[in-house]
Design a protein that fits this description.
The chain has 274 residues and is α/β, with parallel strands linked by helices. It has one domain (4-273): Alpha-Beta Barrel (TIM Barrel). The chain has ten helices and eight strands. It has helices spanning 16-26, 48-60, 72-75, 86-105, 119-139, 151-160, 173-176, 182-193, 224-233, 257-273; strands at residues 4-8, 30-33, 64-69, 109-114, 142-147, 165-170, 194-199, 239-242. The chain has an eight-stranded parallel barrel, surrounded by six helices. Helix 1 (16-26) packs parallel to helix 2 (48-60), helix 4 (86-105) runs parallel beside helix 5 (119-139) and helix 8 (182-193) packs parallel to helix 9.
Length: 274
C-alpha cells in the first residue's frame, strides 16, 4: 500500500475534463468528481458521450477517477426524507444513477454526505444508505460516508450498517461545525474504517457552518501538522484528497488559483512522503 494524492473537482473554478486536465498537469494521482449537475440536469454523467470524454481525458492525463461525491443529496436535503415521498424517491434515483456512473467511469468509491437534524431524518438517511449498500455490493463499489455529526452518532450509523460502509474523513469539518475533534475521530475510526481523507485548512474565524473559505494546508488554525502526524501514527496509507477552495478568499484574492494548488500538492507530498 502507498499514498496517493487527489483533488476535489469543486476545489477548482472549472469542472469536468478541464479540471481533470489541470489535476494531471499539477501532478495529482486522482480526482474526486462532483455530479456535473446530477438530478437537476438529468444525470449527465450517465450520458455515453460524456463518459467517453471523461474516460479519455483521465487516461491521457494519467488521472484516476477515484470517487464520485453525491453532494446534491445533502444540498437538496432529499436524503432526509422517507422512501415513497417525492424527495425520498429523488434520493433513491440519485443513488442509482451515481452507482451507474461509477461503473461506467471505473470509479470505485461513492461518497454520500449525511447531516440529519432530527431522529426521523437520521432514520431516513440510514435507510437510504442501506439501499446504497445493496446496490454497491452488486456493483463492487465502496460507499464512503462523510458526516459532520458528533462521533457517537457516526459510530451508531456505522454499527447499524455492519461494516458495509467506510468513512470519508474530513479533517476540518468537525471543527467548522463544532461537533468534535478530528484527531479523536481519526483515532476512533482507524485504518480499517477510513476510506480516504479530505484535506483542508482554514482560519478559526471561519469555523462556522456554511463557510467555504480556506487557507493553504498548514497555514491555518485546523491543526494540519498534528492531524497529519495522527494519520501517519495510525498507519493509514491511501488517498489524501485536498478539498481546499483555491479560487475563494481568504486564500485567493484575485490571484492565480493554480499557484495555490501547486503549493498544496507540494505540502501534501512532503508531509506524507518524508
Amino acid at each position: 500500500m502507498k499514498n496517493y494524492y487527489g483533488i476535489c473537482e469543486w476545489s477548482m473554478p472549472v469542472s469536468g475534463p478541464l479540471a481533470i486536465r489541470l489535476a494531471g498537469t499539477a501532478g495529482f494521482d486522482g480526482m474526486q468528481l462532483g455530479e456535473a449537475g446530477g438530478r437537476s440536469l438529468n444525470f449527465p454523467l450517465n450520458h455515453p458521450e460524456i463518459q467517453q470524454i471523461y474516460n479519455e481525458t483521465a487516461r491521457h492525463y494519467e488521472i484516476r477517477l477515484h470517487s464520485l461525491n453525491l453532494g446534491a443529496l445533502l444540498t437538496e436535503g432529499t436524503i432526509d426524507f422517507p422512501v415513497n415521498t417525492p424527495q425520498g424517491d429523488a434520493a433513491r434515483a440519485s443513488i442509482r444513477n451515481g452507482i451507474r456512473a461509477c461503473r461506467a467511469l471505473d470509479i470505485r468509491t461513492l461518497v454520500i454526505t449525511v447531516s440529519p437534524k432530527t431522529e426521523d431524518a437520521y432514520s431516513n438517511a440510514l435507510s437510504h444508505l442501506e439501499y446504497a449498500c445493496r446496490l454497491a455490493e452488486i456493483s463492487q463499489v465502496e460507499i464512503a460516508v462523510e458526516s459532520a455529526l458528533p462521533l457517537p452518532l457516526i459510530q451508531v450509523l456505522l454499527d447499524r450498517l455492519k461494516g458495509r460502509v467506510k468513512v470519508c474523513m474530513d479533517i476540518l469539518n468537525p471543527l467548522r461545525f463544532g461537533t468534535g475533534d478530528p484527531i479523536e475521530q481519526i483515532q476512533a475510526f482507524g485504518t480499517e474504517t477510513i476510506s480516504h481523507f479530505h484535506m483542508k485548512d482554514s482560519l478559526r474565524s471561519l469555523f462556522t457552518p456554511g463557510q467555504r473559505g480556506c487557507v493553504l494546508l498548514g497555514t491555518g488554525d485546523a491543526g494540519y501538522i498534528q492531524t497529519a502526524e495522527t494519520i501517519k501514527k495510525i498507519g493509514f496509507q491511501g488517498w489524501m484528497i485536498t478539498e481546499n477552495y483555491y479560487y475563494l478568499p481568504p486564500m485567493n484574492m484575485n490571484d492565480d488559483f493554480m499557484k495555490f494548488i501547486l503549493k498544496d500538492f507540494e505540502t501534501l507530498t512532503s508531509t506524507f512522503e518524508s
